[in-house]
UniProtKB/TrEMBL annotation:
EC number: 3.7.1.3
Protein name according to UniProt: Kynureninase
HAMAP family noted in UniProt: Kynureninase (MF_01970)
Pathway: Cofactor biosynthesis; NAD(+) biosynthesis; quinolinate from L-kynurenine: step 2/3; Amino-acid degradation; L-kynurenine degradation; L-alanine and anthranilate from L-kynurenine: step 1/1
Length: 416
């Protein structure tokens, strides 16, 4: 039996426990939704004030040079790059994950069309975050060159589809719904053996699991910064390109920030050398700057230690649900094998939406995803073992007392 006292002991021995003080968290809230929107770093408030009052307010347009706003996308990309196994000058922070996927998909398809024009299949998971599929469909419709999307059921279905004329594969490193964690190096080897290219969506893995894009010989990667990296709602996304591909093609959103000599105001586009060619237009400096607050916290920690604690916390969550809530019909859909588990735990239940609303009313914030999935994000830098204990005790009480049957929990908001 796991006890409350045992959880308190684990918190006392936790090497990462002091990092919780770096975040502004409401009192008496157990926040299990950092895989959707990360908590606010405490120092972001002072930093935002500095940017707004000094860099913008006092220095005005001079800050493009004085504060190096112009260099921020690459400078910040180099910091994020340390968390994903990227070298200097390989990563840029820019735009949204959605736009960045369009950019790298365009590049990957162009590269493949030059080498293997007969390859017309773009692969994605059926259970991918929908925007990935939408962008692939929109891209195919836009270029109108006979490409088609092939949706697979997961890693077990990949071998089958790779026997066809696959140009590009788009996969989420950690599946947003189930928490399934792909073995990046193994998948890359399999895809490259069939002369296809891989784009990794890192939205649910960057800041949650260790990775090394270069060592794994990845091709392209994109991902958001507002989940585990705590960059703030809608903060700009990351984009990484393997140097062997970077200068083969420039992405089609050829705005002036990606120009080789932007201030020449030339009438024709010439792509910048290196990763800057993946920029488009003027960047959102204030929201982009705040990403640094969260990233700097990660750079003081160890991704390996974060991963170790993540696995202990997710193990604890799963074990406690088994121990305390086995009679209530929760079906675990997250892998129990550490090798294939990211940093969130998901269950299916016919009344998942109502249960999540009841948890939120009790101060335990998780989230819901169709169909019938309760999803709990485990963020080791600001969650402890007692937090997990308390969350499961609230879940148990909700089920014992049928609190989820409250009619108000049936009403769905615009964001669910």
């Amino acid at each position: 039996m796991i006890t409350h006292e045992q959880c308190l002991y684990w918190d006392k021995e936790d090497e990462l426990k002091h990092f919780k003080d770096e975040f502004a968290l409401p009192k008496d809230i157990v926040y299990l939704d950092g895989n959707s929107l990360g908590a606010r770093p405490k120092n972001s408030l002072n930093y935002a004030q500095h940017i707004i009052t000094q860099e913008w307010g006092e220095d005005l347009i001079n800050s493009w040079n004085k504060a190096d706003w112009w260099g921020l996308p690459v400078r910040l990309g180099d910091k994020v790059g340390q968390l994903i196994g990227a070298k200097q000058g390989e990563t840029v922070i820019s735009d949204s994950t959605t736009l960045n996927l369009f950019k790298v998909l365009s590049a990957a398809v162009k590269i493949q069309a030059n080498k293997y024009p007969e390859r017309k299949i773009i692969v994605a998971e059926k259970d991918a975050f929908p925007t990935d599929i939408y962008i692939i469909e929109g891209f195919i419709d836009l270029i109108n060159q006979g490409y088609q999307v092939e949706l697979i059921d997961g890693v077990s279905d990949l071998d089958r589809v790779l026997e066809s004329e696959v140009a590009v594969v788009v996969l989420s490193h950690v599946n947003y719904r189930t928490g399934y964690f792909y073995d990046m190096a193994e998948i890359n080897t399999k895809i490259h053996a069939k002369n296809a290219l891989i784009i990794w969506d890192l939205c649910h893995s960057v800041g949650a699991v260790p990775m090394d894009l270069n060592a794994a010989n990845s091709d392209f990667a994109i991902g958001c910064t507002y989940k585990y990296l705590n960059g703030g709602p809608g903060s700009p996304a990351l984009l990484w390109v393997n140097p062997k591909h970077r200068d083969e093609f420039w992405q089609p959103l050829s705005g002036w920030w990606g120009h080789r000599k932007p201030f020449d105001m030339a009438q024709h586009y010439e792509p910048a050398k290196g990763i800057r060619r993946y920029l488009c237009g003027t960047q959102p400096i204030i929201s982009m700057s705040l990403i640094e607050c969260g990233v700097d916290i990660f750079l003081k920690a160890s991704m390996q230690k974060i991963r170790e604690k993540s696995l202990k916390l997710t193990d604890l969550f799963i074990d406690l649900v088994n121990q305390e809530c086995s009679e209530f019909g929760f079906e675990l859909i997250t892998p129990t094998d550490h090798h294939y588990r990211g940093s969130h735990v998901s269950y299916q239940h016919p009344h998942g939406y109502e249960i999540i609303q009841a948890l939120i009313a009790r101060g335990v914030i998780g989230d819901y995803r169709e169909p019938e999935v309760l999803r709990f994000g485990i963020t080791p830098l600001y969650l402890g073992y007692e937090d997990i204990w308390n969350a499961v005790q609230h879940l148990k009480a909700i089920m014992q007392h049928n609190e989820w049957k409250n009619e108000s929990y049936l009403v769905r908001g615009a964001v669910t």
